[in-house]
Amino acid sequence: MAGWSAAVSAMPIRSLLSTPLIADGQGIGAMKVFAASPGAFEDAPTALMELFTSPAATFCPMSPAGGVAAQPCG
Description:
Blueprint: H1 3-8, E1 15-23, E2 26-35, H2 43-59
């Protein structure tokens, strides 16, 4: 087991939902939600999360040059 899976293997994370944050056509990060139960995220929560990511991306601080996040959002 390597990488992210190894890092969280001792944590009670069994489900992950991740949606990209896109501002001005550029990927600037991701919004992630974790759950302790397997299969916690179905189509409805996925669609709902996608509704939140567009407005959330506009709140992330942007650098004046290049349009990349100046610091982590959150």
